[in-house]
Design goal:
By secondary structure, the protein is of the alpha/beta class. The protein has helices at residues 47-54, 78-87, 93-106, 122-125, 132-143, 145-157, 160-173, 177-186, 193-201, 207-215, 224-236, 241-245, 247-271, 277-280, 290-302, 320-336, 348-354, 372-377, 382-389; strands spanning 5-16, 19-31, 36-40, 62-71, 74-75, 115-118, 308-312, 340-344, 357-362, 365-371, 437-439, 443-445.
Length: 453
């Protein structure tokens, strides 16, 4: 099975007034389908830059000097890379901004819909003057208006008799998803199945309330001219340019679909453990706690059922109890959606809770990748060993910090970037960049100590 995402020899440099900052220096990494891949390392090692490069949200002074980010057999960074290769030392952020506009248009069908990202600080990620429900709804309205249109049309077609039949099916099959989807397809109710399944799978309401909610999905008929407009959106899967240009049509489409998006937002927020979501969608970010804001940001990322979700420090801005709740939420999400996850954190304990594999970054390179148990119990790279030895334990062993300082990436060390701090460094480490050596069945380490092993 091909990887969900492949990063090959990726180099990213920031052009600043103080020189060129080499943030990524040949990252090679593969994200497998359905896995949770953790990325750990010290602050400034390039973890967030890697996530932003994947989703093409780097600032205009960031040049992709070389490398590829391959998703669905497409290179997501080819436009920026080609510009950087063409101009070389004559890189100009203002000229690069025009390239980034083209990248933005090319990424419209991918960013937010097939690849999404949970940013590091939820308060700065949310718009303080827009309600929470609108911000989730807008994500779906922009990227997948066809889904919202199908949901609206399906409820207008549903009749009380069909809802009774659907209830009987849900009870007989215990909410079997394939059976419900087949029922919706056979009765031309595509878009209703996810609404019915959401209600049926709720754990916070009694069965009688579930039945009442499913019966209420049989909505009132729409006005003929509104129905024609929404059916057009449902058929095309997008908002036709004519509708966007004509103010009356644009307002009708936006009003109906955003209202449906807020309804969908209530479903997503409820599934993420937010109680009374019908009230929360009307609130503003400053009215929510840190944990609830983090859930809202995760809801925005998951709203369009993406194939890849990048989570950048999802627990850094919350206290320990909320951190435990967020980690439990991530575990639940990975079992309920068929997505691959990249979880970025400086805390190995956080990654140990949720990750299948962990990649260790240092100075813009991946120095070790292995299954979580192997990384924690049998670390091979000297940096990984010292990183783990710096974690306090209940056994009371002495905590050993990593000697030396993080290198200045405007003038990084030659050879292995860790050699000035490595207790095992020898002559070759000072001059030659190490390649990846396979150890065991599924462990890669970039260290010359394992060259002959």
């Amino acid at each position: 099975m091909p990887d969900a995402l492949a990063i090959r020899d990726l180099h990213v440099q920031f052009h600043t007034r103080r020189g060129i900052y080499k943030a990524l220096n040949g990252v090679d990494l593969a994200l497998r389908r359905g896995e949770v891949l953790g990325i750990a390392g010290e602050s400034g090692c390039g973890k967030t830059t890697l996530g932003l490069a994947v989703i093409s949200l780097l600032p205009r002074n960031a040049a992709i000097a070389s490398g590829q980010v391959v998703f669905d057999n497409k290179d997501l960074v080819n436009l920026s890379r080609e510009y950087a290769e063409r101009v070389g030392d004559r890189f100009r952020p203002r000229q690069h901004e025009r390239v980034l506009r083209r990248v933005g248009k090319a990424m419209t069908r991918i960013r937010g819909r097939r690849i999404s990202m949970v940013f590091q600080e939820p308060m700065t990620s949310l718009n303080p003057v827009l309600s929470v429900g609108f911000q989730v709804a807008e994500t779906i309205y922009i990227h997948d208006p066809g889904l919202l249109a199908h949901r609206v049309i399906a409820r207008t077609k549903a009749t009380p008799q069909l809802m009774r039949e659907l209830l009987a099916l849900l009870g007989a099959t215990r909410g079997d998803e394939s059976a419900v989807r087949k029922f919706a397809a056979d009765h031309d109710l595509v878009g209703l199945e996810e609404q019915a399944l959401f209600i049926w799978r709720r754990q916070d309401i009694h069965i009688s309330r579930k039945e009442k909610a499913v019966r209420s999905l049989a909505g009132p008929p729409m006005k003929p001219w509104e129905r024609n407009i929404i059916e057009t959106v449902a058929k095309t899967g997008s908002i036709p340019p004519l509708f966007a240009r004509v103010p009356v049509l644009s307002r009708i489409v936006r009003r109906i679909l955003v209202r449906e998006g807020i309804r969908k937002a209530r479903e997503v927020l409820t599934s993420l453990g937010i109680h009374h979501a019908e009230r929360v969608v009307k609130m503003f970010p400053h009215e929510l706690s840190g944990g609830m804001r983090q859930r809202v940001v995760i809801a925005i990322a998951l709203a369009n059922n993406p194939e890849i979700v990048i989570m950048d420090e999802p627990t850094s801005a919350v206290d320990v109890t909320v951190q435990a709740q967020i980690l439990e939420l991530v575990k639940q999400i990975r079992t309920s959606v068929s997505a691959s996850f990249i979880v970025i954190s400086h805390d190995l304990a956080v990654l140990a809770e949720v990750s299948d594999r962990i990649a260790i970054m240092y100075a813009g390179r991946i120095v070790e990748v292995a299954p979580t148990a192997e990384i924690l119990q049998k670390p091979l790279h000297p940096y990984t060993q010292q990183l783990i030895s710096a974690i306090p334990t209940l056994e009371g062993k002495s905590v050993e910090g990593i000697k030396g300082e993080v290198p200045d990436m405007r003038d990084p060390p030659s050879g292995c970037a860790f050699h000035p701090r490595c207790p095992f460094a020898f002559e070759k480490c000072n001059s030659v960049v190490p390649v990846d050596f396979r150890q065991g069945t599924d462990q890669l380490v970039a260290c010359w100590l394992y060259e002959a092993k």
